[in-house]
Amino acid sequence: MPPLPPELIEKFRAIVGAKYAVTDPADIEPYVTEERNLFHGRSPLVLRPATTAEVSAICKLASEYKIALVPQGGNTGLVGGQTPHNGEVVVSLRRLDKIREVDTASNTMTCEAGVVLQIAQQKAAEVDRLFPLSLGAEGSCTIGGNLSTNAGGTAALAYGVAREMALGLEVVLADGRVLNALSKLKKDNTGYNLHNLFIGAEGTLGIITAATLKLFPKPRAIETAFVGLKSPAEALKLLTIAQGEASTALTSFELLAEMAVDFSIRHGIDVRDPLQEKHPWYVLMELSSPRDDARATLESILTRAMEEEIVDDAVIAANLTQRSGFWKLRDEMSAAQKPEGGSIKHDISVPVAAVPAFIAEADAAVVKLIPGARPVPFGHLGDGNLHYNVSQPVGVNTADFLARWHDVNAVVFEIVLRMGGSISAEHGIGVLKRDELPEVKDKTAIELMRQVKAMLDPLQIMNPGKVL
Amino acid sequence: MPPLPPELIEKFRAIVGAKYAVTDPADIEPYVTEERNLFHGRSPLVLRPATTAEVSAICKLASEYKIALVPQGGNTGLVGGQTPHNGEVVVSLRRLDKIREVDTASNTMTCEAGVVLQIAQQKAAEVDRLFPLSLGAEGSCTIGGNLSTNAGGTAALAYGVAREMALGLEVVLADGRVLNALSKLKKDNTGYNLHNLFIGAEGTLGIITAATLKLFPKPRAIETAFVGLKSPAEALKLLTIAQGEASTALTSFELLAEMAVDFSIRHGIDVRDPLQEKHPWYVLMELSSPRDDARATLESILTRAMEEEIVDDAVIAANLTQRSGFWKLRDEMSAAQKPEGGSIKHDISVPVAAVPAFIAEADAAVVKLIPGARPVPFGHLGDGNLHYNVSQPVGVNTADFLARWHDVNAVVFEIVLRMGGSISAEHGIGVLKRDELPEVKDKTAIELMRQVKAMLDPLQIMNPGKVL
């Protein structure tokens, strides 16, 4: 990419103000690197607009000069979608950080794109409401990024993914037009549903600048259990019982392989096994209720599951400290794989009913491909979403193992696709899975995606090279 | 529209079989008229395909000959979207009536477009699940029509509108390509969200041929209360308390004006007032729970609301007969307006918080425009969705009153739009509101809608003249 014409930089500077048009390489660095150092980009210019009007002016100017833009929120994405791989101009949305309105009677909150997820959660809590989206990066990721990547997280079971939490959006299109599709309405059948095109599009169709989000009643009682059982099939039976008795009060249902728990206990600080004995599989389940009936419901579920010999052992957190302990064991699971050497990761989903068969087939296929490889599956069983990670065999060379990344992917994805699953359940496509997408997606869907892209971004300036 | 070339009719006949290519005017009649006789169309040919492949072949052939198609489900739409106003060929989806799969572990059901809603509900109940979409026409409307119009109904408060119940779709595009976006996955971030474009598009972008629908645990306990109170503002306070205590177990919350209740009691057969005395406003609320706690929760909500003097009187249905009686009173409300003369109807939504102000302003404006006019508002307060109907003044000429339809619309819609509402909450645009749409919708949204239409239906053969 040729250097930006100086007069163009001046024009961009005039839009956002000199202070917010970043050209110093040292200041640019945080925007072109990401946490894990998996992706490293380069950019001559980072723009930090503060208003929708400024974003619109940036897009208009970029269209005029046919300059590519990479929108960026908290820079926490895992597939390289937010990185300027080819010297694009970065548009950081972090300064669009106003919560425009909270409406407790309508149960809505209108946030700008740069509002940090945790701030949105806190703001909801202050008015006795819940904004349920919750994920590891919540301290730094932003609402705009959450929507652009259609984030999932641990509350999707009861409340849905990010898409389901957005009633409406404000979007700046590639040519600078502003689509005002903000709405507090649950029911609005006036024309085509446009805002869902931009959710999950990873900034390739336009820049989300604000969203009307749903709020929910704040739960009064939260009860958490840690359960030992024999197999994913038993866990699925427990899930069916739990949903039957608790319905949407069942807010988390995480399936954990013994090895995932072992790694977490071995390598996590202050992580303890809540149960006396080891079990081949574990479930971390949580009920949230606006009334004080969660404990009774949880006990009823577990009693029935024990009577039916689905559950072998279980403990309910007696207090908040114990509950935190259960979740720490779960939250440490990704980090705890590192000391065990190389880990080849998958973020897949299959129909919930297919999870046990998927694990059995994938384990067998992976071990056949690489004898001694150690599958460490864990994840959101209730959503059919597993972080199907594979740790290297003990004692082998890590680089040699990681060199098989795509071979392992191929074996796992074949099973996923055969079962009607997705090769990217939560994290998106970005650049990481871009080249695989046409192979796994319905042909007509890919054609339509290309048509949509050409329609909304004819100059190919919105986050080019991502997704498609 | 010129008559269809005979060889084209032959080709269509070859696709669906002679029996299912209807050309006899008497047999065509049911497809071109609708229940209320508000719309009457004409068509030379009704095609009744039985498979997606047949629908695809029809669209391919129609594209080749540039022949317009009107997709039709149960023919129960209220805005003329399913009627061939200009001699188009009707494609009735009723024979695509297979339930392809029910998966109780994944909680999904894959239905073809022609499955009648009530059949889908029954099928779910048979496997101890709930398919919650519910509306007046459920005995004859179809899943394809429900999705094409994004139907709402009485369960939207807890379960969402039709859009939220579809995990994926199969769609035949205007040129005959089949988009396979059927999916049982709750989490799938592989590319743009295409299926939501077709939901609510009223058959103008393609023909929905099948859908993967969400199933929910079947409630064990349902408790229903009929409540008298002073104003919509008090009803809103009751809603906030009820959502706080019951969360998603609050499955219905209907606001009813005194006059709506009066009409229903006066004109409905076997409709009785559940309360001793008259009240200016009423709420019909229902809790559904997978456990037997609904009664206690409902009592707790009502006790608190009475202590806070929000509720003046309330009765909880003692048995299923009483419960049916409460709902009959509500369900008769539309029909009961007829004996009172002309009724000018609106299907609007505003943010939930704005409902009391909307009713006050709309009542004043309507009565100022037509002295003696009788507003009869009722509807789904929890969704901000009111059927704001206006009955004629007593004793005036009905035709004269109905001649003011658009004047009354204009006054009501001005208030709706000022409050950030929608002029069509549930029923869609069709032809009835087509000409008003560009005036009420965001300009950029209309431009994008036109771009989407041109992209997916360049020959303008899919339900032309509807929506846009």
Highlighted features:
homodimer, 468 residues, alpha+beta, 8-stranded antiparallel sheet, 5-stranded antiparallel sheet, 17 helices, 35% helix, globular
Strand content of chain A: 15-25%
How many β-strands of chain A, per DSSP? 19
Global outline of chain A:
globular
Oligomer type: homodimer
Low-confidence stretches of chain A: none
Largest interface: A-B, 95 and 94 residues
Provide the residue-averaged pLDDT of chain A. Answer: 96
Supply the number of helical segments of chain A: 17
Estimated helix fraction of chain A:
25-40%
Overall radius of gyration of chain A = 23 Å
Distance between the termini of chain A: 19 Å
Structural class of chain A: alpha+beta
How can the largest sheet of chain A be summarized? Answer: 8 strands, antiparallel
Give a description of the structure.
The structure is a homodimer of 468-residue chains. Chain A has 17 helices and 19 strands. The first copy, chain A, is 35% helix and 20% strand. The model of chain A has no long low-confidence stretch (mean pLDDT 96). Chain A is an alpha+beta fold and 468 residues long. In chain A, helix 9 (232-246) packs across helix 11 and helix 13 (355-369) packs antiparallel against helix 15. In chain A, strands 12, 13, 14, 15, 16, 17, 18 and 19 form an eight-stranded antiparallel sheet that branches. The longest helix of chain A is centred in the middle third of the chain and has 15 residues, at 232-246. In chain A, a hairpin with a 5-residue loop joins strand 8 (166-172) and strand 9 (178-181).
